[in-house]
Amino acid sequence: MAGGVSTPALVAAVGSAGALGFLAAGYRDPDGLRADIREVRAQSAAPFGVNVFVPADLTDATDRSEPTEPARLAEPAWLGGYRAALAAEERRYGVSLGTPPAIDTDHWDEKLALLAEERVPVVSFTFGCPPGAVVDRLHAAGSCVVGTVTSGREARVCVDAGLDALCVQGPEAGGHRGSFPPRPPAGEVGLLPLLALVRDEVDVDLIAAGGLMDGASVAAVLAAGACAAQLGTAFLGTPESGAHALHKAALVDPAFPGTTVTTAFTGRPARYLVNRFIETLDALAPPADARPPAYPAVHHLTLPIRRASAAAGDPDAMTLFAGQGHRLARDLPAARLVEVLAAEAAQAAAVMTRRLAPPADA
Amino acid sequence: MAGGVSTPALVAAVGSAGALGFLAAGYRDPDGLRADIREVRAQSAAPFGVNVFVPADLTDATDRSEPTEPARLAEPAWLGGYRAALAAEERRYGVSLGTPPAIDTDHWDEKLALLAEERVPVVSFTFGCPPGAVVDRLHAAGSCVVGTVTSGREARVCVDAGLDALCVQGPEAGGHRGSFPPRPPAGEVGLLPLLALVRDEVDVDLIAAGGLMDGASVAAVLAAGACAAQLGTAFLGTPESGAHALHKAALVDPAFPGTTVTTAFTGRPARYLVNRFIETLDALAPPADARPPAYPAVHHLTLPIRRASAAAGDPDAMTLFAGQGHRLARDLPAARLVEVLAAEAAQAAAVMTRRLAPPADA
What we know:
Largest interface: A-B, 50 and 50 residues
Distance between the termini of chain A: 49 Å
Radius of gyration of chain A: 20 Å
Helix content of chain A: 25-40%
Oligomer: homodimer
């Protein structure tokens, strides 16, 4: 989960309960990330992880994420049309669109230096495979390095780069698709066959993610060959989550018809509850394979609209990230939710073992 | 699997091996179906099932499936355009498009009478929920009655109609989506969260289907709350399967980039390996929510093209039904595949149980 939702309190609570919490480095500035890491350590002695977004263009990793004047941009073909499409949203919320920086590496170099310095136990990456030098540096700092993959091909790239484990993200997942490089969401393989295909491609520890809301689903992915299950949406509704109160309420609100994947908010395909913004803008948004990539430019464009929507207590233009099982989100303290998930998983395992046993007359 | 692929030999082989095989009534004429049922019984004493397609319009269930003159049809708006789009395929294969009957209930009344008369152990339905009178009649004949569902809402409808168990079909599945009534494939929930949502909605035995190719996946859905796993594509490659040799070969041929869901062949969304026909016609095909429904009219239209393609040994216009895990299909005798799946599931269950056990120092 990108910065803000996965709070230090949430990470510390699930860690102390015996699970592994992740802080999000995405969209966080380095000082904020360092403060979060230290806050987790102040609250819990348990291991934890940090998730980092891999910038689209690592060949120029010099961090120049300060905003630049629009005149300095080489304007992508899709930009003018999408700006025009967003004009009604500017008027509705009384804000101006944000200004995409010329290059945004999301403070890649600074964050990696910080993670190595802080000797973070687990560092995971999303949107691409980190370069070998980065993997080596994190290994030297004692970190376990995890990649996020959505296909057997991506899994092969990560294993060849020396990563220690892979998070296999099914299309059921809420939030951004971790695919690298950006591509259309068509042809996405569901989590169970994806796990089977990745197991067939590589021999490395797999963490399963996407649509897992209860302990039975956790047990299921462990049976399917994962060594762990990763849950995001299931923890969005906990009191420790930094999700907006409207976001938490929307997860279980039958007025929302379900989720969809769109590039409308950030330029990258991500799964959200369907709201008015998505219904209006999905068809007008740049495609997932736009060149130059629409992410993170569209993220910067729409940010003032999303902030104004949240400030107005109006979920119609908020990013209501949600996995497909969102209706099953539970409003339990995070540590209690970890306990409940573990108990449900043990129960599911016992039932499964009985179902697989040969009949008594065999 | 619709008629032809699931042979009596396949059903008898998996039944004798301890699994439950299904004959397909879809597209079969009643005499052929009766012969198939008797052939299964001649080859094996094991229980078996028959799957039946629920016609779109059960309010006029009088069977009038004989072809009628095009002049007698009230032509749907989409028909002319799609006929024109298919003209190049007619020329390529030297055939004329088929003639959709005015009403096609696929011999519904005759087949139900036959199934009751033959006292088939399990009767499952796809594309809708059978009327209560049908359920009662099959119950009176001693049959277990199973519905196919793709959402919690459909599950509720089936349970209220008195069905005994539900096949929960994830979007990973090959072949037709079982959804009722026809609707666009957008918003389909993956098998694992779908199982959780259906379990939350109804309390009835669930059979999980969609993308399951190995024993670990079977164990996974049992852990996720299913009482059984249903595999189609996994058995397509067996020698007993009636799939065309080109279809069997295509499942594991890396030249096929993967699967997609399209209405282009039958008018109903179904998942196939992507071939030239789909690449050419998907964008021109009637939408899944066309009114009047495009299924089964498009099935009848394209049938001569598909037959000519298969007869020519050309997979470009064949219906290469395939679930998302198709690359993992194994060319094993069906009974042996059942044994392998059971052994893999037991192994996966043992690994999962170890993973869920508290650490030794806890």
